């Protein structure tokens, strides 16, 4: 690299560098005193001092509230919530503080757990008590709301008929969150509301006890939905009318519009209109999304996230493909998973510029249009029963960063989304000969081709301390997350340890010591 080019890159933040050397160093390991159990999910404390200016539209921002908010942030800014098989920990990665341990009650469930099931975790805050952060976590089909400041359970909720697969918090209104489930549905909750009181179920003669018959569509339960804060507002139903036809695996709220994007086992990506009217006393049922597509990925879609106003990022599992279009041929091969960045082309029809508010929005087939901007083949997986896990870090002052962990691997791949190559256009077909040759060379995956570009090469973070003898081959990373303004990465391992990477000092990117 030439000297002017090196000088130009030295003025850039670390995530704009395109060098092969990693900008992070492995700082420390944290161990649990409990028997070795795999850590399955991670959730960084997501807010900073400046977050109060944007949360709930800045309605809570005052000088006094801001000073109290900063005290709370200084206490919890280095907190990382991690889940095991039957418990939740809160580690403090910078301060020498005793980790919090939350044990889940042993509850008999008729739901059969799968190897991929885990305790999902997310952080939330109520506008009525912004100085008391909450942990929202799930176990099978039950939800728990835990007040980390008071160290007690504020609520437990139920409603799903299958295991909960993910929890998503609204980025602005953090009292709103949703859960996805294997029962094909998505439920949206509001922590500002409390559960219904005594259920007035009349007895059916000749019985003298209240009837347990439920309401139509199964929205309201015939028994109590739990205790404490939090009430379900909207249920995105599954089924042939327009909902998911298999397990829903991930969801993401739009930061500005009343939209939520979902994806699942049925290869479908959907975008729903969800006006969150908190004045209603009944649960709203929705079964017709504004957008639905099965053309973005060839296999199960594991995650979804909004990158911008109309741009989304998704990733899928490996796909089993036939080697020939011949119906009699049974030869197959496994195509690697894929990460895709794509744009929803129909957003302007539903939310045009200006003051054109629409009360009722309904999608149609012509709105099911998307434009794939970039695709990235994911690393080949050694364990077919597990899939590559993707974590997206976003910040208003930071490029989107993608962290990838692979089954059976002890490393993390770090990509800057801005550096990904655009998808190559299909070849221009001139004549019949070119048509045959071009058809043979077309790849629906939109791969980058044989040329390897420096911009698409990831940074690699390797687990284990500097002394290689301290690294166990079986100590593989399950999940990872980025936090603290993009300066810290935490990886959770199968041996119950946390690997913590810190950003290197600016201007000394070759150093490997703090």
TrEMBL record:
Protein family (similarity comment): Belongs to the WD repeat ESC family.
InterPro entries linked to this entry: PcG_WD-repeat, WD40/YVTN_repeat-like_dom_sf, WD40_repeat_dom_sf, WD40_rpt
WD repeat positions: 157-192, 241-272
UniProt keyword list: Repeat, Transcription, Transcription regulation, WD repeat
Extent of the signal sequence: none
SMART domains: WD40 (SM00320)
Domain of life: Eukaryota
Listed name of the protein: WD40-repeat-containing domain protein
Gene3D superfamilies associated with the record: YVTN repeat-like/Quinoprotein amine dehydrogenase
